[in-house]
Fold:
Amino acid sequence: MKQKESAESFRNEPVSDPSILSRKEIALYRNCPKQYVCVEMLQDGYHGAFSELFSLLRSDQDQRTQALPGSARLQAPPLEDQRDKLETIRLHLSLAEKAEREGAWTAVCEERLRLGRYFSSHQDFRLSFHFYHSCADRERGGRSRPATEARLHLAELYRQHGDPEEARQQAEMGLKQAEQGGWLDSDGRPLRLWACRELAKSCSLLGEAFHAEKDFDTAKKLLQYGSKMALEGEDRCVEGEVLFKQGLSLQSLGDHGAARQAFSTCLQIFSELQDVNALVRNYKAMAKSLESEGNVQEALWLLEEAANTCRSSGLRGELADVCLHLGNIYCHLGQPKRACEYFLQGYKAACSTGDVTLLQKAQVKLGVTCAHVYVGQYSGDMQAASSTSVKRLVSWKETRGLQDLFPDLAE
Amino acid sequence: MESELQTSGVTSNIMPLAFPRGKEKFCELCKREAYLQCTRCRVTFYCNAEHQQADWVGIHERICHLLVRMRTPTELIDHAARRDDQLRKAELIEICRLVAQSKLSEGKYEEALPAAHCCLHTSIDVHGPNTVQLLPSYLLLAEANMGLDNLAVVAELLCQAKWVVLKHPESGPLIQQQLHRSLGRFHAAVGNLEAALHHFANDVYFSSEEYGLDSINASKGYFLMAEVFVRQGKIPVARSLYSKVAHTWHKHLISLLHHQTEISHKRAVSSQSFYEQSQRVEMDEMLRAMLEFEQKQFRRDAAQIALLAHSLAMLWFLGGDLQKALGFGTTALQASQQITKHDLTEPVQRLLQQVQSLQPGSGSRTAEKQRH
Structure:
């Protein structure tokens, strides 16, 4: 009797051996990642998160089917096959929905902001747009710190994807919220500064666009506003960048005095930052202004300076460009021999860059100018009909080469 | 007397001499030896009057005339005749399926059984045993038995259904969805709540895949999930699910109502199919369950109550029960007036006016009352 009872209890023992797979583990193995993740969310009661992910997957699919074969959209694998991304979305959307149920609106935005940051790579920019928007545009919590941060990220994204107008609007809203909130970003700096920088960048881009469309007044206003914001943003790099654009705009309007003023401030900033590329660019722009004002000597001096900077920091392409420019000026000044020296330098620099157009340009310039020099040197002999001059010409023909012009080349 | 005949059918005793020898007749329902015969089709047999009654109410009334040609033995078997036969059988399966489904929706589990059985037998006849096509019949039978609390039978049926789906991985999301829903219901009935949730979650997933995120079908899955969450004591989750379901159905009913008024401009009386009616019963039950749930909450959500009551009012208006429509409409109006920012008041009032215009006499008085 007792034995029977023990057998009975043995039979009724629930199976809880860890070696037996759970329903979850079986689903993980058998179902596709999409189904697994969706079912997990639903099972935990997060139906809002499920709906959101499901529609994201749908739109991903739709975009892929509409994409032309071979387009960049089809390069990345479909979202539904990327288990880690699906899992990340599940985790944060579930947390966001939980927070929403509890009425913790800031936490909701926090989770969405995290998702937006997670999809920072270029091929996922649609997802980051979605999550940042869903964070920044919330009715409840839309004015919180994470929502403001999301707005600034949005401004950045719009700027990078060629919509400076939208970027500016987002940055302006972000700035207003940041000023009201007085928050710090993750690096401990005031969020307001970031907003200013973002606004400065988008304004200067917009200014450039208006300038290109010949709406100079609007462009000028925007660039001025941009540099003001850059100054407030306390970022020298952005400040220099915006100021430089302002200078260029002034330059093309013919206001060279004001342009040079802007450029010289830039010069200070860029030397402080030791940004060599920007420095060279700035030298060139300054030289251009001086040149058009007729102050050639100073322009030459600045270009020399630029060439020295290039040499010391190994900017071969820039060096070639600057040298060609110098050569051109000397040509115009009627000093072809001097010009040839620079063209040769430029040619050598271009050789090491591998930039064929630049190389060809340098070659042609050098050739043409050399020819001019020779014509100057030997035109007397050509015109004189004496045998000595013919002999001279023949012997020159036998030995001619670049060393005629540049004695230090002869070894 | 006439009506009695209509609901019960006519039978006579089998005359053994009227049939070829050696071919015994078996009961349509229990497959035991038969003694009675349907006098209309003369091709259906029963062991006793009880089974005949059950079959008549369950399905036979609708398919009696179809069976005559199907079961009359024909000697010449040419290609066209066989195809005709197949088509008729397919039609029979479809009718049985719909009838069983409607009976289940109405909660008449006992009556659903004959139709489900007939569906299964005809399906086996057409498609052969162990085929995917049998799955709907298995699920219908399982659901009927679940309603009757024959859980052992349900377990066996679902086991078979699962096996069929496993053997045919190509069977689409629709089949999977139906299977998961039945499995979920079974586990919920047994009290295995986690497993039930797992299956309902799969059900919703496949429904969304097949019919879209905000489909009626998916929202039924949500409703079932919410019930489980209530049993688990997770009330906030259940409430948020109910709110989603209520929104979906409210939207659906509004579009139905819109559609209906458009039709009724052209035709005075709209025809209502048998299937629609059973759907209505099921929907009414679920909407009322949600309404009662919300009304029982400590902190009532007036918006949810207004939404549900409005849905019910629209449902009954469409169903032609003006009294109920008026009742629910009044509830909806009261609830929607409690909330500050809600745009429901106006459509509810419009519906109430519509109801009252169809209801001569008493209508105007209630309308007066509404206004004050």
